Amino acid sequence: MTLGTPLTSVATRALLLGSGELGKEITIELQRLGVEVIACDKYANAPAMQVAHRAHVFNMLDGQALRAVVEQEKPSLIIPEVEAIATRTLVELEQEGYRVIPTANAAFLTMNREAIRRLAAEELGLPTARYRFADTYEEFVQAVEEIGIPCVVKPIMSSSGHGQTTIKEDPSLDEGLRIKDERLNSSDSESLETKVISPSSYVLHPSSIVDHAWTESQKGGRAGAGRVIVEGFVDFDYEITLLTVRCAASDKGLRTQDERLNSSVDEGTKIKDERLNSSDSDTLETKVISPSSFILHPSSPAHTIFLEPVGHHQVDGDYRESWQPQAMSPVAKQKAQEIAKKITDALGGYGIFGVEMFVKGDEVIFSEVSPRPHDTGMVTMISQDLSEFALHARAVLGLPIPEVRFFGPSASKAIVVEGDTDKVVFSGLEKALSVPGVQLRLFGKPEVHGHRRFGVLLATADTVEHALEKVEEAYRYVDEGIRTQD
Ligand SMILES: Nc1ncnc2c1ncn2[C@@H]1O[C@H](COP(=O)(O)OP(=O)(O)OP(=O)(O)O)[C@@H](O)[C@H]1O
Ligand SMILES: [Mg+2]
Q1: What structural domains and CATH numbers belong to the chain?
Q2: Which of 314, 360, 378 has most ligand 1 atoms within 8 Å of its beta carbon, as the pocket-test mutant?
Q3: 356 is catalytic
Q4: CA distance linking residue 456 with residue 412, whole number of Å
Q5: Across the beta sheet with 228-232, what order do the strands follow?
Q6: Residue 103 has pLDDT above 70, yes or no
Q7: Is 159 among the catalytic positions?
């Protein structure tokens, strides 16, 4: 592989689709290797655009607009940083010879909860929460009854918790259940417990939380109203992101067990590929986009690296704190790595993946996967010699990664700003950065309407608990000093 010089005819150009805080760090890491980076997003002055060589502002869900930018820039690499992209166009562009990271099919499958869930559970046999899909209100009610309460409802196309609701039996929380509660109060207390948790005894009421969940899911989906997934609520001890890198094998001639495993995957890929080549192009499109007949992507043998597991805490489907390493039993850690290996091999290509899993005791349940750096993985900006962004840059360029140095217990805390302004000002930073071992990143986002992540605090310490205490302390100073008024 070769790398050119930016802004010349021999430049290695990367087109970044999505220009948030993760894209900003990817851009910086690519530029450290002399890559010319073109940042794209639907709004101007997005974080990555502020550090990229140039930018394009357009709706990335618009396939024609996306194609026009790709044909204009002729990038060596197309690097998706978000889910909301016209992934069918990416599939076409890949067939025309463009390189999509990690693969166009991976971008397509992971943008759709149904596609990735069917791949994980039905094709690969990975353990997942129980699930049903529903297109209409009637199907939805049926799905909730089949899965049972508590359950989690999500649009199949959404991220960061948009449109997601948990239906649970908490009488203090909602009217529908209070009504049920009143009814229950007249019955004897022994049967209360059973009635509350049994799905069939759940009372549907126009204002109940079930209706609320449906309404939210129809508002919160990326593609508007439509299909939802109803998942059994997993009562996990903790949840992790297992950052998993697929990269070129190093030149040292060492053939690891991972690579041997991968070569067998590549065989399967070839067979499926031949099948595709023999079919006409119409059925190809169907095959590529149908989740049940996904294709494994042809890829060079890859070396797989697992980083230390990242633990995290979510509020409303959005991450607030993450830490590394998350302590796990050896059995659970082994299972998590096996799951991550299977799903990342199926998606193929080079790059980093964030494999999200729930853990209870020694049991590990697959949740979802991002074929790109993960927000909870921002902690690696302080915990490792190569952050998840540096690893992604190296992997997508086809460069080897023989070693990743983990520095020890670390934590991150998102700085979430609430308000309605394009003039956010931070103070309190002197105090925050007086906490030893703390670092700060401010993303430079241009405005907030509602709540939005504007920065992250990072810390290392002798234990994860202490690292978390440090980011909490620093956060209090930053939070007190946020100004969202003119
Ligand atoms: N079946 C479930 N049982 C218990 N908790 C769940 C379940 N599904 C989701 N959650 C909780 O909600 C969080 C967000 O869910 P999920 O990752 O599926 O949504 P998302 O919108 O893709 O979020 P993101 O884009 O931030 O990863 C999870 O990290 C977990 O804390
Ligand atoms: Mg998630």
Answers
A1: 1-100 (3.40.50.20), 131-232 (3.30.1490.20), 410-484 (3.30.470.20)
A2: 314
A3: yes
A4: 7
A5: 131-134, 228-232, 151-155, 165-167
A6: yes
A7: yes
